[in-house]
Amino acid sequence: MSAGWFRRRFLPGEPLPAPRPPGPRASPLPYRRPRFLRGSSSSPGAADASRRPDSRPVRSPARGRTLPWNAGYAEIINAEKSEFNEDQAACGKLCIRRCEFGAEEEWLPLCPEEFLTGHYWALFDGHGGPAAAILAANTLHSCLRQQLEAVVEGLVATQPPMHLNGRCICSSDPQFVEEKGIRAEDLVIGALESAFQECDEVIGRELEASGQVGGCTALVAVSLQGKLYVANAGDSRAILVRRDEIRPLSFEFTPETERQRIQQLAFVYPELLAGEFTRLEFPRRLKGDDLGQKVLFRDHHMSGWSYKRVEKSDLKYPLIHGQGRQVTVLDVGQLELQEDDVVVMATDGLWDVLSNEQVAWLVRSFLPGNQEDPHRFLKLAQMLIHSTQGKEDSPTEEGQVSYDDVSVFVIPLHSQGQESSGH
After folding, report:
1. How far apart are CA 58 and CA 81, in angstroms?
2. β-pairing, 317-318 with 277-278?
3. pLDDT digits (tens, 9 = 90+) for 318-362
4. How far apart are the C-alpha atoms of 240 and 413, rounded to whole Å?
5. pLDDT in tens, 361-373
């Protein structure tokens, strides 16, 4: 995952700026209402950031639209930390079409209707203002859809093929892919990582072009083909809460693995490769016959896999081999789901005052007594936020209050088992 605009834009060793005292301040970017991307691609709803600090609302961002799986969402602005809410959110149905490169390397839809469908949730916590978070909420889902459409043929295959068109250059290609342990879920992981990288670059260009500064964290959950993928860059958090289990689904963003560090070093200082090596990793060393084909690969920002069209430079000797993880995968199909099994996603404003165990206690206390309420997941999200405000019925220590923006998704998993996620 990128460590750029999705975090704070500081160089290693650079001192952090002194924190600003509480109180309203002007946003570094004039507010504009987040736009929904329209069309057959995807249609997540971005949360409205236009709220005064003294209004302290608890609300749903969907404006009457049905959230996927009836997911509960609530957001609150508190402590007059900033004039506009630095938390942003997006959610919706993810529609993935079959596409292929055209002669001009532009994406051409092979069929106008969706080929695979999934669901998408994302939380963004801005630093230094809401600008980066608003851009991420409006951009990341589109980047992800395009990345998934680029590998969709591999996603629906029994095993991702070495060549996306199914061509067999080397008779032992399936064995190379099998030895690497590459599965369809690795393509989704690779798509998420590449989408983070692409969105990071878009945000960087937009902010630099407008002379703005700032950054944001990103916490994303994607439901696809019976699995839930949780990707994180920053200090937001997601946990699975079941009757007898609490499972972390994300971890604070940490330095890259050694494989990725070496690849990134080669990316920053290509002269170290001496024109003899490629920093990219492939399941096997490529041959001349692979030129022009779309084959499996991964770069420094990826622990998953994707496909690229082979160029002459890719035929050089590979610099590294390895394996790592930065995206958590929950195989929902392997769980014996109960109606009260949920995933809680929240920005750090919640986790600053509530532990995983306290959140799980609140979930388990609330849901069983509200089985007939169709809005119970929304109300649970509101109650979790209420619990960060130092109220008498809060499970936190007396006087413990969150002075940060707080955003929460509560995603019921039981409904997923009742939906078909095929193509």
Report:
1. 17
2. parallel
3. 887 555 458 899 999 888 889 999 999 999 889 989 999 999 999
4. 9
5. 999 999 999 989 9
